[in-house]
């Protein structure tokens, strides 16, 4: 038999270094010069596909160095950069440089953080990361949990823990057929779409969600919530869980968590908080009141890849009594002998969540928390909020902008033309909605800045969410100019069609 000396998969140490040093140079340049670059490409899907023609799967391999040279250019030229200082769409943070390096190191070690015996130090690091995130937002460190891919998975995990905790133990054997009444979950109309996925995927059905209306601040109306619970009890349904939102995706509103906690206590319901975006802001002393009640949650979802600046992916679920996680997810098949060196202490993360094999997500978060320190992170979050307020204030001052909402680091606004002679026509809701929708589309393609949208009181708005330590005051001022200039142009085009 012939065994080649070197596998085609391997790289010599020399090659690895050569490619690696070049890569570090390119990435360092990218990270530090992004503000000068177009935020996104605007070339079509067909053209993008054409950029890949060289990369049809070949029979024989090619040089790793050539591959990296080409691929680095390909990605730099045709990506959307959510680390760009003027990226304010949806909720994705700029990746912390230390997180970028951490992913490289983590991949090299490649621990499987499913079982302690497979990832001795990585497991300890993830446990500590969970403790630190908990204590950062003011929870006692007995909360347990784990890192997952993002907010959806974190919320799903909390949802399943709630179900285990609040319904009869024989559910595991009998499933829904063993239940005498319908399980009901309550959340506000502003709740993220994960809840729909959860009730569909986990077999509850969409009818098991009570969408409670919000008040004018986009926060859940607690009186209507309590009435809905009472009605369900009267109808012999089984309320089991209330979802509060700490930072809703559209406007950043935080529900009255204290009031929700009280209601949950009164009716013996699981209190889950979806803080995927907003929860890290609970660490700011000036927001104590906004987040009052957060420490009473049974479970909290929070995304380090949002307001803790981790590169994708990193979500996190924290549970007050982590036994509800192991009761939900643990299974001990005969082929897993994971008791390890000290069975009584073995912490096997596969028993806490949905994944079996798990990557080392914690490393990038753990390093970032140490590198910035608590004060550094507070400062960054505070600055995002201040910039968002500046955005709002500049919009208020501008005669062609209408500022609509400002909560946490999310501002919504829209462009409004001021042509005296056609005032009624141009202030018509449909006209303005269509104008702002086109405006958003054009801004997104421009490569200059990136916003997303929200509907506030039927008004189509531009929405800026700042979770980016690279964004500056100057960026916000320039955004205002770009929005107004582009809005004017679109109004000009639309109104000439209109006449
Ligand atoms: C972003 C977000 C989610 C979903 O999180 P992913 O990380 O995208 O899965 C859920 N809820 C809220 C409030 C969010 O902001």
Automatic annotation (TrEMBL):
Belongs to the group II decarboxylase family. Its cofactor is pyridoxal 5'-phosphate. It comes from the Bacteria. Residues 407-490 form the PDXDC1-like third domain. The lineage of its organism: Bacteria, Pseudomonadati, Bacteroidota, Flavobacteriia, Flavobacteriales. Coiled coil: none annotated. This is Pyridoxal-dependent decarboxylase domain-containing protein 1. GO terms for molecular function: transaminase activity. Signal peptide: none annotated. The keyword Lyase applies. InterPro entries: Aromatic_deC, PDXDC1-like_3rd, PyrdxlP-dep_de-COase, PyrdxlP-dep_Trfase, PyrdxlP-dep_Trfase_major, PyrdxlP-dep_Trfase_small, Pyridoxal-P_BS. PANTHER family: GROUP II PYRIDOXAL-5-PHOSPHATE DECARBOXYLASE (PTHR11999), MIP05841P (PTHR11999:SF70). SUPFAM superfamilies: PLP-dependent transferases. Pfam families: PDXDC1-like_cen2 (PF22937), Pyridoxal_deC (PF00282). Keywords: Aminotransferase, Decarboxylase, Lyase, Pyridoxal phosphate, Transferase.
